[in-house]
Amino acid sequence: MTETFAVKLEEKCYLPDPRCKAAAWTPDYTRAYQEFMHDPEAFWDQVAHELDWFEPWDRVLEWNYPYAKWFVNGKLNITYNCLDRHVTSDRRDKPAVIWRGEGGEERRLTYDGLYREVMRCANALAGLGVGKGDRVCIYMPLVPEQIVAMLACARLGAVHSVVFGGFGAGALAMRINDAEAKVVITADVGYRRGKTIPLRDIVNEALTHAPCVEKTVVFRRGTPAVDLDPAREVDYADLVARAAPDCPAEVMDAEDPLFILYTSGSTGAPKGIVHTCGGYMVGTYYTSRHDFDIKESDILWCTADPGWITGHSYIVYGPLAVGTTVVIAEGTPDYPDPGAYWRLVQDLGVTIFYTAPTAIRMFMRHGDAWPAKYDLSTLRVLGSVGEPLNPEAFEWYYHRIGGGECPVVDTWWQTETGMHVVTTMIGEAMKPGFAGRAIPGAVVDVVDRTGKPVPPGTGGFLVIREPWPAMLRTVHGNDARYRTYWETIPGCYTAGDLAVKDEEGYIMILGRADDLIVVAGHNIGTAEVESALVSHDAVAEAAVIGKPDALKGNVIKAFVTLRVGANPGDALTDELARHVKKSLGPVAVPAEIEFMDRLPKTRSGKIMRRVLKARELGMDPGDISTLEE
After folding, report:
1. What local confidence, expressed as pLDDT, does residue 193 receive?
2. Nearest Cα to 370, choosing from 554, 594, 222, 564?
3. Phi and psi torsions of 155, nearest 5°
4. Which residues touch 252 (CB under 8 Å, ≥6 apart)?
């Protein structure tokens, strides 16, 4: 890890309509944060009381560094809060999930309908011997049954491990074995960009290396229906149809595990992050309601997949605990054309749209004409997740998609944090390039390697100083790896990201700590150079790496994809070099610029710079199980 370094901050500010702030669930950020800091446990106690518990907790927090227990001895079931409490209210017939398939087919499940599906699925799994504490691997396409399966596991107290349906057999087998899954729930096929993905075949290949699995449940979509192996496979629809219609929610302790989710592995071997029932429920409920300012009539479309933490927290558990309507869609942003997302926003009347900067920059690449074809007037909140939202992408998103009227909720958090930790709350001033401030409920700082806060305008390490409810509890089977989060910088949870704070406490994420390039003694953040490149009108996306150099130690090489209509060549290379020099100074100018049709990314949209570096240096790229292609 590097020492601190100065960062040039250029701040622009947008003030949302005052009516946004007045109507928000958190109308006064400063007051809310002061109330939290005055008594953090009372703050979270009040939030938790908005949800339904079978038995109350004895203590809000028990903190034995670096281990936390939240809502000690409280008893609950997260599905009771996502389902039961809504079906006994006016939300009974409200849409819970609206699904749009890649081919345009649509299904809607009301809260009552979802409740009934989950209970039957839970009883079906119980009939296969699944009970409290058992692990179930869910490897499915983005269909409603994926959400049903997650909730059915939680209903029983079984621990689900959702594996994104784009992983190959090797990555799937590793995750099944590490979690020691008893049952796998999958589908015969998924659909992506007009192609059929043979999920069941991938599962069968993985299971040759995963002897712990007893049964595979197959949701059959294809025509004609694929024949199943009666010794090991069961049909999802048949199994659920035969199951009893009522399944009482298992009583869970607040600290019982809810799920294991494996990180992407883009920086090493995947880690099985363990989240528990009580704190995770409270944290995702609170941040869904307050950060997105969810109102009763809202329709939330988070474009992630439940195979990632974003989908767990902000498609399934958080929004359903609030009682909102969520949209899931199997398609990709630019298929069959770059208007796919905007067409769906128009068709379904989406009000809250939450997507990744990678997608936003892809939309920018295709130009303003595509979103202009559609009526996006229902949108009232825009969100961003997954990586830093560079200022140019913010500006385009805010003006072209939100019409300059929708607050942009740029969120920083991780698989490990379980919930948003840094954002700009609805109604607060928005600063392009800055994610925002610590949410009321989290103590976030930028520090040097000793844990000492650095002055405003100085880059350092992003840390969380105090425990928060949705925090990870351990790494499955490897608690020593968990402790490294808290032992790297004394007394702090170290996120592994570099950041800088301004005078008002707004935080700009500069990229991973291992994404710094030292050029002739100067620390250059990859995110800064990439942002400078993307600010040029011709550039859609950029990734930079350091290459060893005998004179300077390292030089910068940039990999660039261009917007439609831009022409690569020496003239553009020289122009981009001048552009970076003007933006960041001569030390940050790439020594080489290579134009590419696409950049290597994980399926969650993060650019895999280490793959580019390995290719450049002729090295083994390591684990590429998360690579999109």
Report:
1. 87
2. 564
3. -60, -40
4. 75, 76, 77, 78, 132, 157, 258, 277
* Rounded Cα–Cα distance for residues 284 and 171 (Å): 28
Say how far apart CA 161 and CA 153 lie, in whole Å. Answer: 10
CA pair distance 123, 264, nearest whole angstrom: 32
Residue of 247, 248, 226, 250 whose CA lies nearest to 236: 226
SS3 67: strand
Count of beta carbons in the 10 Å neighbourhood of residue 375: 11
Q: In terms of DSSP H, where are the helices of 76-143? A: 78-79, 85-87, 111-127
**What's the CATH fold of domain 78-250?**
Rossmann fold (3.40.50)
The reported pLDDT for the residue numbered 607 is 83
From CA 195, how far away is CA 209, in angstroms rounded?
Answer: 27
Chain CA centroid to CA 192, Å:
20
CB-CB contact of 97 with 109 (8 Å): yes
CATH of 520-617, one of 3.40.50.410, 1.10.3210.10, 3.30.300.30, 3.40.30.10: 3.30.300.30
Q: In this structure, what are the phi and psi dihedrals at residue 247, rounded to the nearest 5 degrees?
A: -140, 100
Cβ contact 492:463 at 8 Å: yes
> Residue 556 and residue 591: Cα distance in Å, rounded?
6
Domain positions in the chain: 78-250, 520-617
Q: What pLDDT does residue 2 have?
A: 45
Output the pLDDT for position 267.
Answer: 44
pLDDT tens sequence across 58-87: 999 999 999 999 999 999 999 999 999 999
Give the pLDDT of residue 516: 67
Question: Which regions of the chain are under pLDDT 70?
Answer: 1-8, 10, 264-269, 514-516, 518, 520-523, 550-551, 585, 603-604, 620-629
Q: What is this structure's pTM?
A: 0.86
- Residue 444 structure tokens: 């976030």
Taking the C-alpha atoms of residue 175 and residue 143, their distance in angstroms, rounded to an integer, is: 21
